[in-house]
Amino acid sequence: MKFNSILGRYLAKQIVVTFLLVLVTIMGIIMMFDGIEALRRISGREDVGMSYVFEYMITRLPQTVDKVLPFVMMVAAMITFWKISKNSEYVIIRAAGVSVWGFLRPVLLAVFMVGVINVAVFNPFSSKMFELHETIKYRFATRNPKAMLFSSKGLWIREAAADDKVLVIQAKNLRLEENELLSMRDVVVLEMDRDSQILRRIEGLVGELKDNKFKLRGVKVFVSGEETETLSQIEYNTNINLQRIKENFIEPDAISVWDLPGTISFYESSGFSAQRHRMRYLSLLISPFLLVAMVLVAAIFSLKPNMRQGGVMFMIVAGITTGFVVYFSSQLVYAFGINGYIPVWFAAIAPTLVVSLLAVSTMLHLEEE
Description:
Elements: H1 6-42, H2 50-86, H3 89-95, H4 100-142, E1 155-162, E2 165-177, E3 180-192, E4 198-210, E5 213-222, E6 229-237, H5 242-247, H6 260-269, H7 275-302, H8 312-338, H9 344-368
Helix pairs in contact: 1-2, 1-4, 2-4, 2-7, 2-8, 4-7, 6-7, 7-8, 7-9, 8-9
């Protein structure tokens, strides 16, 4: 069946509309629980109002939706196939000479397009909201409404230099050899007070970290309302070490799919591991195929010639159980990939590939009966 045929467009519309309805329902449930959690957090805090609850819910929602999207798609597909089977539309379509794969083709294509839109359009928005959510939580924890949680491509690290001064250090390039940080290049240091107000901006060509000393060479000092000062070098006492730099690398969820390749290249060229970022990038690329696989799973349980014979409860329980098994299994395999037990590319592809092959083989077996 062609996608642009009348029947193809009808089936594609059914799955997309049902998906949106299920998604809105799930989003409402998620926001309700997040709202309860936010209310629990602000209890006893006179410095925080209901605006925090609203911001907490809105900024957390996209990232949660991103995690449950395969499950949402499977539920939407089960509902769609159940309605089509219950109304005997599936029997009529098959009687017209359309095979099960011809029936599924426009549905799978529509689902794949939804997955592509999710990765290309929704993911950058979700990444920004995740970063904003982390900033909101940081401001809540520090009781400072102006506090900033810095993150961007490259290295950002924050350190208290004195009781009244905070340093925020950014480096665009790092060099790591034999597990020792040798140098940083294109370094920017922001000297800030405890109210997150910038006192000075210092730019250096080269930074060196050694013996609890952070040295900058080729320095320019910028102070608001004053002329730029040029120095040969400047030195700070620091507690920054290699382990802390590793821990302060950016969370993969805060980087959009378009920026992840550059971030991975930056970390790997610096000598640091980018396993988590590479895993995130590959899982995003494969996610449209995972949605397709979940629809195939839904078809096994809910695409039947006659749903009037019963078995609806079995369909619901079996489908939801399978969805949870697939989800937790994929998370387990992802953890193996991140920790280096199996290749990252294999960890990203294996769950989707296994689910797809099992679903296709089961559908072929059911067709032969």
